[in-house]
Structures are given as structure tokens and as C-alpha cells.
Amino acid sequence: MKRYELIVIGAGPSGLSAAIEAAEAGMQVVVFDENGRPGGQLFKQIHKFFGSKEHQAKVRGVRIGENLLAKAKDLGIHVILDATVLGIYKNKEVSVLIEDEVQNYKADAVIIATGAAENMIPFKGWDLPGVMGAGAAQTMMNIQGIRPGGKILMVGSGNVGLVVSFQLLQAGCEVAAIIDAAPRVGGYGVHASKVTRTGIPLYTSYTVIEAKGVDSVESAVIARVDECFQPIPGTEIELGVDTICIAVGLSPMSQLADNAGCQMEFAPGKGGNVPVLSETGETSIANVYCAGDVAGIEEASSAMIQGKIAAAAIARDLGYIDDIEFAEKKTAYAESLSKIRAGMFAPGNKGKVFEKTDEGFTISDSLLTKGYLSESELSAFPALDASGGTHIVIECTQNIPCDPCQDVCPAGCIIVGNTITQIPKLDKDKKCSGCGLCVGVCSGQAIFLVNDQYEDGYGTVGLPYEFLPLPAKGDVGKALDRSGAPVCDATVVEVRTNKAMDKTAMLVMKVPVDQLSSARFFKAAEGGN
Q1: In percent, how much of the chain has pLDDT > 70?
Q2: Residue 348 CA: distances (Å) to CA of 181, 351, 406
Q3: For the chain, where do the domains classified as CATH 3.50.50.60 start and end?
Q4: For 240, what's the count of Cα atoms within 13 Å in the CB-facing half-sphere?
Q5: What gap in Å lies between CA 10 and CA 487, rounded to an integer?
Q6: CB-based burial, 254-277: b 16+ in 10 Å, e otherwise
Q7: The domain 120-248: what is its CATH number?
Q8: What is the CA radius of gyration of the chain?
Q9: What whole-number distance in Å separates Cα of residue 522 and Cα of residue 165?
Q10: Measured between alpha carbons, how far is residue 182 from residues 55, 66, 204, 264, 314 in Å?
């Protein structure tokens, strides 16, 4: 029987973070993962993270995964892949299936970081090829380089559904619609906005009731639902699609903890059946910990911090760090975790409806029900600079934990403050240089650079752009508004890139001055890029 001081089950963000924390303290660590590649969900996540610098905000998930793997390798952490953990038994004995052989390991401590599984919803025809989880579609695109389908219906408007819809567009797929049975958009408004301005319709209070097709999906029937989430007869709409992606939440993969005898609880706010944990992630079994989505569904940033807290507690218990060092680490990690858990999207706020932001601004009804801001609603927020010449417009109107715009502005124009969930505002005493860095680094793609004095009768809008091939100077097309409707002709005058923007370009398009407040996306003319 092989022996390690710490066994980590799961090589995702929480598991790798825990393993690195423990190894840095001097512990001998092994990580088991049932997949053929480590990193968990991170390598699917080509979008930029939210939070502050300490949470690796504005860094793409795939880059974070690469950094974690590099650290694990440098520290000599033993990562064993294609290894399915069958059970955790007394005295921290762990049975693992590796290459059709059951091998037994023993440890002083175990961290369960098995993550979560996608939820599915049954409907007529849901077993047809072409019906899949949004996470599966993300794996096909971002790991395997395969388009999941040609024309897709996304079911679910949480962050997963919105982010994957955008990535489907980046992969060259067409998204027919995003629907959600709830009466409001479930994810961040900035995620919804960057999707709807491309022209994808978003329907709340709608569900899928049937997938039609012979050998695979050929169409989907959706219908409006009542307040009890029951389809309303006569509201059916049939959409010609070949793929239906389901993004209706995740459930913790807590079976190992349950089978090991850990005390469990059913917690809807955490996603389902989860182990009862101490503040450091310890289960009811001494030195068996849980971290990440297995402990409750949250963002990857939270999962990584949870892994670090659990590993630090184990390092203290095994004598690798003293009480003082542990207290310092715990305090720092707890503060970092509280920041990313703050705001209206905090775990404790799931299911709550907010009518106003923390600052007292009225939450946009259009944003919550249609996925985009109306101009009249936007004008009430503090980051709409009406001054002449070059200026920025920030269309971030919810208390989301994120502040890289504040850090990147060389002129100090943008103010978020010490509380990262505050609505960004502008320092009127500072002059925008027009560099566009804030446009490129904004994780929510919610910042625009406007020049209302470009030439007689025309101005420019600089917007974040993440589609290939990039348009070129002189390309013509249509400017789309926040709802995705064309509003005017547009000409590309510049496409600006910068290493700090990490492959987000700032596309600058020329539009009539009277459309500067409306034009928010560029669609190339047919035959163009």
C-alpha cells in the first residue's frame, strides 16, 4: 500500500490549488483524477475571470489552469490521471482504479475536490443525438476543437448558458435563441448584454417542451410558461435547430463523501446534497476535507481559495506550519473569499430578487427580462461621461465582484473603490487618454470608448471584439444596438490590440454622431469578415 501525507481527489481548480498549498508547506501530495487531462473546468474557460488581482481577474481560465499545472510540476506533485477513486475507508485508506487494477493508498489527510455534474431536464425527444449539456458543448469546442452543432438552442440563462452561448458564436456556430423558464436572466447582466448585442434573442419565461427529429435533432419546440412553470397552450414556437444545449445548473458530486460516512445535508442553495463542513472545509470525519463545487456550487475563483484554506488547515494539523502562520493564511484567504462572494450574486443571495443596487440605483428591468439595457435606464448610472471628445462609457450596472478596469486605467479615470462590487464611476477631474486598455481588459466586455468629435457629423465607438478573423480597417457593415438590431451603417477605422488585453481587440467603428449612444456591436457586411 502506497502512502502519502495528503491525497487530493480531483485535479480541478480547487484540487490543484489545495495540492500546491500543501506542497509549498512541505507535504508529500498525490492527486487523482478520473479524466485523461488535469485542470478540470479551467481549460474549457476561455473567458476572463472576474474579481480582483488576487483572484486573477481579467485572466482567462485556461491560462489559470496552465499556471496551476506548471506550479504543480515544479513542486513535484504526483498527478495520476485516468484514476477513478472507488471509495474512502477507515484510517484514510483510498481505493483507486488505475488501468483496470484496483490500487490502495493511505494518507494522513484527504481532500475531496470532485466538482459537480450538469443537471438535465427531461422533455419529449431529449434522448435524441444533439441534445447535450452546455458543459459538454464547451468541452467539444474548447478542448477537442469540434463544433457541437450548426444552429443551437441554449436552455438556461445563468452564467454557464450565457458564457457558452458566446463561445458558440466564437466557434462559428449560430445560436437561434437563449431561453429560461425563470422570469429573469439568471447570470450576470454583462454576460447577457454581450450576447444580445450580437443579435441572439433571449426569452425569459420560456422552456423547451420537445426535440423533433428522426436520427438527430432537427428542431426544438419551446413554449411560454406560467408562474408555476407550466407550459401555456398556444404559445408554442418551433425553432429549426440541430442542437439543444442544456444549462440548468450543476449538482455537487458528493457521492464519495456520502459513501465515506461524512455527515450530509440537502442544501438547495448549494446545489443539492453536500457534506456538512467546518469553516476550513473539514467534514465530520477528522482530516477528511471537501473543497470546490462538491461543497456547494460557486465560481472557480471561490473553489481555488477553498482548496487553499483546506490545505493550510491540514498543514497546521500535521505540523508543517504553526498556529500563527495558519491564522495569517486563514485570515487572508477568508478576506479574499468574502470579496468574491459579495454582491447580489453572492451564494447566500440565490433566488433573491434585487430591485436596486447597493448604491440605490434601480436595476434595469430590460436587462433582467430581455438581457440588455435600454438607453434611458443607462443614463441613470454614474459611468456615462457626456463630455466632448474621447471618453469612456461603462455599462456595468450590477454589484458584480470585479475591478480590473480601475487598476488598468493609466489616467486613473475609473473608480470602483475598496469594495469590488461597487458600480464603477468616473473621476471627472481626470482626462481619458483614449488608450482603450479598459475596453480590452473588462471581463464583462462592458466598457466602450466613444469619440463624438471624430469628423463632421460622425463619431467613433471602440468596442471589445473577440471573433476571428478580425475585421480590417476600411471594412464596412452594420452597427447593432444593445438588442442586436441594426441601427446604421458602420466602417471600421481601427482594430487595436495590446498584450495587456490578452487577445481581446478593440474594434473602432465610425458611425453617425446621433447613433453613438446606441451602436454597440459591429456586424460585417455579407461576404466580409
Answers
A1: 98
A2: 22, 9, 27
A3: 2-117+251-340, 120-248
A4: 0
A5: 49
A6: bebbeebebeeeeeeebbbbbbeb
A7: 3.50.50.60
A8: 24
A9: 18
A10: 30, 36, 6, 29, 42
Q: Could you report the per-residue pLDDT of 416-462, keeping only the tens digit for each?
A: 999 999 999 999 888 899 999 999 999 999 999 999 999 999 999 99
Residues whose CB falls within 8 Å of the CB of residue 53, separated by 6 or more in sequence, listed in order: 404, 407
- Count CB atoms within 10 A of the CB of residue 366: 17
pTM: 0.95
Please give the Cα distance from 406 to 412 (Å, whole number): 7
CATH 3.50.50.60 is right for the domain spanning 2-117+251-340: yes
- For the cut 60, the answer to whether the pLDDT of residue 386 exceeds it is no
Grid cell at residue 427: 473621476
pLDDT digits (tens, 9 = 90+) for 333-365: 999 999 999 999 999 898 888 999 999 999 999
Question: Residue 258 is placed in which grid cell?
Answer: 456520502
Q: Which has the closest alpha carbon to 20: 113, 85, 127?
A: 113
Q: Is the dihedral of CA 55, 57, 62, 64 positive or negative?
A: negative
Phi first, then psi: give them for residue 283, nearest 5 degrees. Answer: -80, -175
Please enumerate in sequence order all residues whose Cβ is within 8 A of that of 235, keeping only pairs 6 or more positions apart, or say none: 223, 224
What DSSP assignment string belongs to 153-198? EEE--SHHHHHHHHHHHHTT-EEEEEEESSSS--S-HHHHHHHHTT
The whole-number pLDDT of residue 385 equals: 58
Instruction: Calculate the CA 289 to chain-centre distance.
Output: 25
SS (HEC) of 296-332: CCCCHHHHHHHHHHHHHHHHHHCCCCCHHHHHHHHHH
For 11, 70, 157, 182, 190, the CA distances from 186, given in Å and listed in that order, are 28, 35, 5, 8, 12
**229 vs 526 pLDDT, higher one:** 229
Most confident of 109-113, 393-397, 523-527: 109-113
Q: First CA to last CA across the chain, in angstroms?
A: 60
Q: pLDDT confidence of 112, banded at 50, 70, 90?
A: very high
Take residue 309 and report the three cell numbers written for it.
484554506
For residue 263, the 8-state DSSP code is: -
Say which residues have a Cβ less than 8 Å from residue 149's Cβ, sequence separation at least 6: 130, 137, 173, 217, 241, 242, 243
Residue 163 burial (CB < 10 Å; 0-12/13-18/19+)?
buried
Preceding amide of 233 cis, omega within 30: no
